Amino acid sequence: MRCVLPFISMTTAQRGSAVLNGAGIQHRIVGIDASLTRRGCSYGIEIACVNSDSAERVLKRARIRYGDLLTL
Predict the structure, then answer these.
(1) Which of 18, 41, 21, 12 lies closest to 69, judged by CA?
(2) Pairwise CA distance, residues 8 & 10, whole Å
(3) Are 26 and 48 in contact (CB under 8 A)?
(4) Residues in contact with 29: Cβ distance below 8 Å, sequence separation at least 6, in sequence order
């Protein structure tokens, strides 16, 4: 099982990636099917599900917007 935080654009996903790198959270940017998200996001950051709470806190603190967490 993998957890993905969706982003509306590659640029936003890259900004999120930089913030997660700074926090030491392992991740990777992935393409996702836009039909899986409410806002049509087609990029995501895949993280270990055990790190999802930490990743969300870090992104919120940095004011980087993302969609609902996907569990795939």
Answers:
(1) 41
(2) 7
(3) yes
(4) 10, 13, 14, 17, 43, 44, 45, 46
Q: pTM for the complete prediction?
A: 0.90
Contact of 67 with 7, CB cutoff 8 Å? yes
Please list the alpha-helical segments (H only) found in 9-63.
10-23, 52-61
Q: At what angle do helices 52-61 and 10-23 cross, to 10 degrees?
A: 110
User: What's the pLDDT score for residue 38?
Assistant: 84
- For 14-40, write each residue's pLDDT tens digit: 999 999 999 999 999 999 988 888 888
| Residue labelled with tokens 């700074």 | 22
